[in-house]
Amino acid sequence: MDTVTHAFAGALLGKGIFATQRLNPAAESADEYGPPARVAIFAVTLGSAFPDADVFYDWVSRDSLAMLKYHRYVTHSILCLPLWALALAWLTQWGARRLGILAPSFGWLWVCYAVGIGSHILLDLATSFGTMIWSPFSRVRPAWDLIFIVDFTMSALLLLPQVAPWTLRVPQRSMRRALRMWALFSLLAVGSAWLAAEVGFPFSPWYILIAIGLMAALFFVPLWRSRGVAIRRSTWARVGILAASAYLCACAITHHIALRRVQAFALQRQVQPLVIAALPLPPSIWRWDGLIRTGDGDYRIRENLLGPAASEFHFYADSAPGNMIVAAEQLPEARTYLWFARFPLYTLAKYGGQTALEIMDVRFFTRQRQRTPGFTFRVTFDDAGHITSQGMVRDTR
Fold this sequence. Notes:
By secondary structure, the protein is an alpha+beta fold. It has 3 domains: 1-143, no CATH class; 257-316; 318-393. Helices cover 48% and strands 14% of the residues.
């Protein structure tokens, strides 16, 4: 999941759980956060974003496979979580003392960071990218395949409960703020639809209209007779936590249904699966990508749980000869790529007069094109069958 959404989750957890009344001794009212509570919110938010610090290694490394090897590695490990929380808690207390800021106890800060990092690991496990939670002792990449890597619905559920109480804080300005926030988030919904279409995942305009209507209810219903003013910010945050948790549970249920459909497809067509999965598609829990790896290619089944089973499918056949595949699989870098790729596809192409074997992961195919830049591994051969180059392809369009 994207780092920004992780930060939204941390801020929501901080406001709903860790900004307790005990940490608000200097607050003017029960609805305002005192300095220790603000530090606690900061700690959970930073902890929720911290594991993605490993992306900096990819920026400075010359290893084309760095993103696959080290992203979601030790910073995403549940075994290393206590140590990361310990280091961050110490740094926060040290920084608070230097700045003269009243901070929670060291133990409370450790809990804040542990929960924040834990929420990051949990949400990343829920995606299909895979997370090395047992690193550095194991590089196994479990993936629950419940939510899309960039999930607009989850982002909204985590952010809106933090914005809504802000619109109600000053009753004289509530209507103006609500109108501005509703307009802003409606534009963001339209922009999300445009972005999804650009990267190959278009969806119906009805989703946008429904989202705009729900956001109108969120911002304007609490204004009726100023009923929303009495709702504490921590209550808004807890409702948001419950809503995001319910959404995750709903994704787990629909994932189970989608996976059963993919399994039924394989059984009906007498396909012998080596690997089988149902992967989420934006923006709703009803749309899924069924993938089946066989001995000679990959099936891709587009599933809409509101419609008939296997409404759209395609078979991608391996087109490379066996001897080239065997030669490529002996390469250490190719083995690293295949360790990551759950649904590899082997194809042939011509570049500069040489034959190239391209290995792609069908997980990252979009509707418009059958590959995604940055996730293709290419091995080129001369006329004698010798390997002349190898590596990740940064742009395959």
